[in-house]
Design a protein that fits this description.
- The protein contains five helices and 15 strands.
- It is an alpha+beta fold.
- The strands form two sheets. It has a 13-stranded antiparallel beta sheet with strand order 3-4-5-6-7-8-9-10-11-12-13-14-15.
- The radius of gyration is 53 Å and the shape is elongated.
- The N and C termini lie far apart (130 Å).
């Protein structure tokens, strides 16, 4: 190997000799084989970017519900001064999560509210109680009377806008109850209150006719006075017909049922006996004495010559009563299948 003298007077190896001695230095120095200089390739990837420093988390605030003994007094002072929280005695916890000595924190901007809000007072005023002015319903009806707990309670008058009818009387829990009268306009057309026709006057329960009351039919002379149940004539009652005839006796499901008498005013006769489903079944028919100033009847009812008529009537009456009892029990079982 040939040596050359350097600037400092020493001997240095040739580039080829240096490459042979240290082959790994060729790639880093840019010198290729044979001593020729080479340029580094331009498509090599750039060095990775430097990672940013991760910020440290902010310090955590101490919990208001901490139970450490040395912090309790300090937290009480913070709550009282900054959050305006009510301080409770030691050992009492109303936070709902346990381990605390303070009430649940309130919103600071509402801390100045110490009186009842206005909307709560207005809501109480809107809930009708006692005597009240006219209240209009969404369907056009209106009510004037007493209230309790935002329900019609006591005495009041209700106006039905669609039919023009009026109910005036007692109320309970928003339903007609007690004594009251119901009136409708004549011919079904709305009229002023002075022209209304009374239909029913009597007792009510659960918004239905229940108890003792009087019903006036449309002709004005047809009147029923007696007991009611579920809007039907039921019990003891008297029915007066337009021609003056009248029925006095028992009713069941809005029909004559049981013992009763029917008086014929014009004929001056009376039937007395058993009725079933609105029809006379077993009884006697007798003449009534003439009215004052009238002549006796020209053809009275002939004398009955049947042997033992009382026994025959009793036998027939028992059969009718047994059939009625069977019918009533069947109706009860239909209404209540568990019986």
């Amino acid at each position: 190997m040939r040596a050359e003298r350097g600037e400092n007077g020493g001997h240095s190896p040739t580039p080829s000799a240096a490459a042979a001695a240290h082959p790994s230095s060729l790639s880093g120095s840019g010198i290729g084989p044979g001593g020729a200089a080479q340029t580094a390739p331009t498509d090599s990837p750039p060095p990775p970017p430097r990672a940013a420093a991760t910020p440290s988390p902010p310090p955590r605030r101490p919990s208001i519900f901490a139970t450490t003994a040395r912090h309790q007094q300090q937290l009480r002072e913070i709550a009282q001064a900054q959050l305006d929280l009510p301080v409770l005695p030691d050992g009492e916890d109303v936070s709902g999560i346990g381990g605390g000595h303070y009430a649940k924190p309130t919103i600071t901007r509402h801390a100045h509210i110490t009186e009842t809000p206005k909307w709560v007072e207005r809501d109480k005023l809107s809930r009708k109680q006692g005597a009240h002015a006219t209240v209009y319903m969404v369907n056009g009806d209106r009510y004037l009377g007493e209230w309790a707990g935002n329900l019609k309670q006591g005495n009041g008058t209700y106006y039905y806008s669609d039919s023009g009818s009026i109910y005036e009387g007692g109320w309970h829990a928003d339903l007609r109850s007690g004594y009251g009268t119901f009136s409708v306009p004549p011919h079904g057309k709305p009229q002023p209150a002075a022209f209304l026709r009374k239909v029913y006057a009597g007792e009510w329960a659960n918004d239905r006719r229940e108890g003792v009351g009087t019903y006036y039919y449309e002709d004005g002379s047809h009147v029923y006075e007696g007991e009611w149940h579920c809007e039907m004539r039921h019990g003891q009652g008297v029915l007066v017909m337009p021609n003056g005839d009248r029925y006095e006796g028992m009713w069941l499901d809005d029909m004559k049922e049981g013992p009763g008498k029917f008086i014929y005013k014009t004929r001056r006769q009376m039937y007395e006996g058993e009725w079933s489903r609105g029809l006379p079944k077993c009884g006697t028919l007798v003449d009534l004495p003439p009215l004052a100033g009238h002549m006796p009847k020209k053809y009275p009812i002939p004398v009955l010559e049947l042997a033992e008529p009382a026994r025959i009537l009793d036998t027939q009456r028992e059969e009718i009563q047994a059939e009625r009892l069977h019918r009533m029990m069947a109706a009860s079982r239909a209404d209540d299948p568990e019986m």
